[in-house]
């Protein structure tokens, strides 16, 4: 992993919002290099700037200062985004939802269908191409959103608490699905989660952020072997990391009281 090329480079990136009562520092200067093919989890309490960080990276918001360099890999749009609630067009079928970014990019319907059908297979939704979003479970809608985020093949995937709205069992399944998709596509993934277990299970590295003001506290390397699976959750290294992440988060919460 150490040899792969930098994919996302942040140098002193910070963000301040103007609010009625003055300015809010959403993110103190953060510097980090994320390499091609890495899967990074981000944990931290509400309001520590996790969503702000993702929004800055994908250009939904502009940094107040600092530098963000993305490797576009020849793509027009280097970043796909998956939100907590899958934002699907309710009147369009699953196939049409997944193909939508390709339609707007001017790709022909035939070619778009081919790509979209492959992705629907990849996320395990074969057979549901003609269904409407309301006919699917929350987990299946989120799979659709992941397929759509991958439609124009962005090298980077940003995921903001993607599995928070599904039940725990579905979440475990989706975690394993995500690992399989990541391994087969080689995407660079940044995933925000409230779950320290999910963070440790998935990632190569876990970024811990703290609030008031939002900043990066530390980064943990995850030395757990891959492929990950049920045995990972029995590994003492996994339990030690989960406990450490809890301590990291608790330390700051107590300080802030
Ligand atoms: N558009 C905005 N205007 C003003 N303040 C904002 C805006 N977006 C976020 N903030 C503030 O920035 C801080 C970080 O927010 P956010 O990135 O959403 O945190 P998180 O995703 O970690 O919960 C919070 O204090 C939040 O209130
Ligand atoms: Mg958020």
Strand content: 25-35%
Structural class: alpha/beta
Strand order of the largest sheet: 5-6-7-3-8-9
- CATH architecture grouping of the largest domain: 3-Layer(aba) Sandwich
Helix-residue proportion: 25-40%
Return the string of H and E elements.
EEEHEEHHHEHEHEEH
The CATH C-level class name of the largest domain:
Alpha Beta
The low-confidence runs, each spanning 5 or more residues with pLDDT under 50, are none
Query: What is the averaged pLDDT score?
Result: 95
Name the CATH superfamily classification of the largest domain. Answer: P-loop containing nucleotide triphosphate hydrolases
Classify the fold: give the CATH topology of the largest domain: Rossmann fold
Bound small molecules, deduplicated: adenosine-5'-diphosphate, magnesium ion
Give a written overview of the molecule.
There is one protein chain. The chain has helices at 50-58, 94-104, 109-122, 138-149, 168-185, 196-202, 236-256; strands at 6-19, 22-35, 39-43, 65-70, 79-82, 156-160, 188-192, 205-210, 215-221. The protein has 257 residues and is of the alpha/beta class. It has two domains: 6-78 and 154-256, Rossmann fold (3-Layer(aba) Sandwich); 88-153, no CATH class. The strands form two sheets. Strands 5-6-7-3-8-9 form a six-stranded mixed beta sheet, with helices on both faces. A three-stranded antiparallel beta sheet has the order 2-1-4, with helices on one face. The longest helix is centred in the C-terminal third of the chain and has 21 residues, at 236-256. The mean pLDDT is 95. Bound molecules: adenosine-5'-diphosphate and magnesium ion. Adenosine-5'-diphosphate (ADP) binds at residues 17, 19, 24, 26, 44, 46-52, 214. Residues 17, 19, 24, 26, 44, 46-52, 214 line the site of adenosine-5'-diphosphate (ADP).
């Amino acid at each position: 992993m150490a040899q792969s090329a930098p994919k996302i480079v942040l140098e002193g990136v910070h963000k301040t919002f103007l609010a009625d009562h003055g300015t809010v520092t959403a993110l103190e200067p953060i510097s980090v290099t994320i390499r091609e093919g890495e899967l990074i989890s981000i944990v931290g309490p509400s309001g520590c700037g996790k969503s702000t960080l993702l929004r800055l990276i994908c250009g939904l918001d502009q940094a107040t200062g600092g530098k963000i360099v993305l490797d576009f890999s020849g793509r027009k749009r280097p970043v796909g985004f998956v939100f907590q609630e899958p934002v699907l067009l309710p009147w369009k079928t699953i196939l049409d939802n997944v193909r939508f970014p390709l339609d707007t990019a001017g790709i022909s319907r035939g070619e778009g269908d081919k790509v979209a059908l492959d992705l629907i297979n990849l996320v395990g939704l074969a057979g549901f191409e003609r269904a409407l979003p309301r006919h699917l479970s929350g987990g299946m809608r989120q799979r659709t959103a992941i397929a759509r985020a991958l439609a124009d093949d962005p090298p980077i995937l940003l995921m903001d608490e993607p599995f928070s709205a599904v039940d725990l069992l579905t979440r475990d399944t989706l975690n394993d699905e995500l690992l399989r998709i990541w391994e087969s596509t080689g995407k660079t993934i940044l995933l925000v989660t409230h779950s320290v277990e999910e963070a440790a299970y998935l990632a190569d590295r876990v970024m811990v952020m703290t609030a008031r003001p939002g900043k990066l506290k530390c980064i943990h390397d995850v030395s757990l072997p891959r492929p990950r699976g049920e045995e990972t959750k029995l590994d003492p290294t996994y339990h030690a990391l989960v406990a450490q992440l809890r301590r990291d988060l608790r330390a700051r919460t107590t300080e802030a009281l």
